[in-house]
Design goal:
alpha/beta; Quinone Oxidoreductase, Chain A, domain 1; Rossmann fold
Length: 381
């Protein structure tokens, strides 16, 4: 029986973790074309923190979340959490009742149009509509994709959520990465980074990871050709040459920005005579700083192509689901926290240790023993 109220973590405004309040709220009902999902696991993404702190400015000095559609969609209070896994417990009008009981994974986008090949005003569940940091959520039936793989538990499936994997795929497709090309993946130990490494291998590209030396074995096991230590960037180009056999990188998938951007460009342009394609810089994050100082002459004289990436398309989401179902993509799950311990999870995420790799998932307290306890990060923290 579906209860009238549910536990949820509400974001009540821009600010620190004290803006996240755990309380009872009404259980949603599915509208026409929707399914009601009982949430079993939701992956945590850095975008949750950045939206909470208002770190998506499009002008200097702003404290805001993004609003590419022309008006703000992050309305408080909001339930965050984009990468949702759970089971259908009810359906709205127009949805076949046979879907009740299905386990699925959400394509997290709120699409402005029906186009399958483009997404110009990206928004997502957990930002422009309530997400998965709750016991139940109402979602579009056509975006809740069935994944019945018995080898994946719910927490592992959530770790393969679209926020990271679709962003990674869109970085690669936007910059036209193809088989045989040498690609640098920055921020390689996070959700998007680990997704990029796997997707490069599926596409036949050769990924090089920028991370710390202690993560070399894990990243190579995931598919990285080699790992370049980010703790020493003084001789970065020389270390790239050593890794690639003296060849420039074909493309860089950048999640770092800041002062690093110029060095990434250096690693693509040091020998233009040996290149067969234009240098490409695909950007989907700025963890190292939101402002990079670059000589524009370096961009246009070396014909560096720059691609800004946010989210992805319906076509890409559906392809990713097929790869998940087929076992080509593997989860990289770091661990789990209860929903009521989201403050603790946020602190852990910001202050994570050097052994951090992959995703953290958040599990409703009512689902903890079945879907979260075996992945617990709560003990000893």
């Amino acid at each position: 029986m579906i209860p009238n109220t549910m536990k949820a973590m509400l974001l009540t405004g821009h600010g620190n973790i004290d803006k996240l309040v755990y309380r009872d709220v009404p259980t949603p009902s599915p509208a026409p074309g929707e399914v009601l999902v009982q949430v079993t696991a939701t992956a945590k993404n850095n975008t949750d923190r950045k939206a909470r702190e208002g770190l998506y400015p499009t002008q200097k000095g702003e404290t805001t979340s993004f609003q590419m559609g022309g008006k703000p969609t992050l309305i408080f209070p909001r339930i965050q959490g984009a990468d949702i896994v759970g089971r259908v417990v009810a359906v709205g009008d127009g949805v076949d009742r046979s879907r009740v009981g299905e386990r699925g994974l959400l394509d997290f986008n709120i699409y402005a149009t029906d186009r399958r090949d483009i997404n110009l005003t990206p928004d997502y569940y957990g930002h422009g509509a309530d997400g998965g940091y709750a016991e139940y959520v109402a979602l579009p039936s056509d975006q809740f994709h069935v994944v019945s793989n018995e080898d994946l538990d719910d927490a592992q499936l959530a770790a393969m959520g679209m926020c990271s994997y679709q962003t990674a795929m869109h970085m690669l497709t936007s910059s036209h990465v193809k088989a045989g090309e040498q690609v640098l993946v920055t921020g390689a130990s996070g959700g998007v980074g680990t997704a990029l490494i796997q997707l490069c291998r599926i596409m036949g590209a050769i990924p090089y990871a920028l991370s710390t030396a202690g993560k070399t074995a894990a990243l190579q096991a995931l598919g990285a050709e080699s790992v370049i230590d980010r703790s020493d960037m003084e001789n970065f180009v020389e270390r790239v040459k050593a890794a690639t056999g003296g060849k420039p990188l074909d493309a860089v998938m950048d999640l770092v920005g800041g002062d690093m951007t110029d060095r990434f460009i250096d690693a693509m342009i040091f020998d233009m005579n040996s290149r067969e394609t234009y240098p490409r810089l695909s950007i989907a994050g700025a963890s190292g700083g939101n402002i990079s100082e670059i000589l524009w002459t370096r961009i246009y004289l070396y014909q560096v192509q720059i691609f800004g990436v946010s989210h992805g398309t319906r076509e890409e989401a559906e392809q990713l689901v097929e790869w998940i179902r087929g076992g080509q993509l593997k989860p990289v799950l770091h661990g789990a926290f209860r929903l009521s311990q989201l403050h603790q999870a946020e602190r852990y995420f910001v202050n994570r240790s050097s052994n951090y790799l992959g995703k953290i998932v958040i599990v409703p307290d009512s689902q903890w023993e079945e879907h979260g306890a075996s992945w617990s990060l709560e003990k000893g923290i």
